[in-house]
# Entry
Amino acid sequence: MPFMQHLDELRVRLVRAAIAIGCGMTGAFLFSEQIIAWLIRPVDTPMVFLSPGEAFWANLKVAFLGGLILALPVVLYQAWKFLEPGLYPEERRLGLAFIISATLLFVAGVLFCAYVVFPLTIGFLLSYKTEGLTPMLAIGTYVDFNVKFFLAFGIIFELPPVITLLARLGLVTPQKLSANRKYAVLGAFVVAAVLTPTPDVFNQLLMAVPLMLLYEVGILCARWFGKRPAR
# Structure
């Protein structure tokens, strides 16, 4: 396929993925109040909004997160169809497994953040040297903090299928991944520092440690499923 045809194919896939996310957002927006009520469950303090449009934008942000999760199988399918022409017939049959595993891992990352990491994080931040202070949380800032945190964990949980796909494409090998483990540890802390909404070491550890474990899982997956078939 010529280069311009590749770009046209990419544009078509991106447009279809955007339409799917938009449809998912529409459905999630109808339940945005229930989603926000679920998000604020770890916090005892009442929420406020500081500008007329803040509550609306908060609902729109949670609708985006919900819409992305709902549309994720379609988004991954479009990504796979874009990559499919460069794969062998044996590899093309892995498409369904890739879409299902990547979707489940993204949801698992969001749920892990929601039920394990975020309650620890918000409890730590609201109690850190705040004796004598009363927290007053704005709903827009709080939702923005949540969405960034959830998306970050959803993305890092995609590491095993991404590593497996790169191994199938011949771009990485389990041996190279194992040999570069020390750089992966450093990279995990750099990624955690960039993706976590707060700069404290506590939150970075909560992301860096799962990221290192996922890297090890990715090496195992590359070893088991990453061997590219012979021509």
User: Anything to note?
Assistant: The longest helix spans residues 95-127. The mean pLDDT is 85. The chain has one domain: 3-225. The beta strands are 47-48, 137-138.
